[in-house]
Amino acid sequence: MGLSTHVLDTMHGTPAAGMRVSLYTTGGAEGQAHRVISLVLNADGRNPDGLLYDSQSLKVGTYRLVFEVAAYFKARGVDLPEPPFLNQVSLDFGVADLTQHYHVPLLVSPWSYSTYRGS
């Protein structure tokens, strides 16, 4: 159980190795977001340390994942307009059942993205 993420680069058909991702808790006082962790995805497009939260650390509440999309594609040599169409992709989601695993994948190109609750 716990919380994980995985990013696939749909432009190149590969995992998004090297993309920076930050995880925030949200919904606190005045809706403030507090950064929990910032990391760079490994060669498989995942957190090199495994879960973002293990089952003991994950709490019921709201969270935000922020993916540094433009910086990733620029580093891959993609010629992006200025400003880029997608700079950061922020996904806000809720965790309601601590007995389940929450997997938040992102499929992304410089012009589009898709997400879903994975397993």
Short description:
The protein is mainly beta.
Helix share bin: under 10%
What portion of residues belong to β-strands? 35-45%
| End-to-end C-alpha gap | 10 Å
Structural class: mainly beta
Shape field: globular
**What is the radius of gyration?**
14 Å
The figure for the number of domains is: 1
Number of DSSP helical runs:
1
Helix and strand run: EEEEEHEEE
Please give the largest β-sheet.
4 strands, mixed
Give me the count of strands. Answer: 8
CATH architecture: Sandwich
CATH topology: Immunoglobulin-like
By CATH, the superfamily comes out as: Transthyretin/hydroxyisourate hydrolase domain
CATH class call: Mainly Beta
User: Which regions have little confidence, pLDDT < 50, spanning 5+ residues?
Assistant: none
Folded structure, characterized:
- The protein has a 4-stranded mixed beta sheet, with no helix packed on it. The protein has a 4-stranded antiparallel beta sheet with strand order 4-3-5-6.
- The protein is mostly beta strands and 119 residues long.
- The chain is globular, with a radius of gyration of 14 Å.
- The protein has 1 helix and 8 strands; from the N terminus they run βββββαβββ.
- The chain has one helix at residues 69-75; strands spanning 2-9, 14-15, 20-26, 34-40, 61-68, 88-95, 101-108, 113-115.
- The protein has a single domain, classed as Transthyretin/hydroxyisourate hydrolase domain (Immunoglobulin-like), CATH 2.60.40.
- The mean pLDDT is 96.
- The N and C termini lie close together (10 Å).
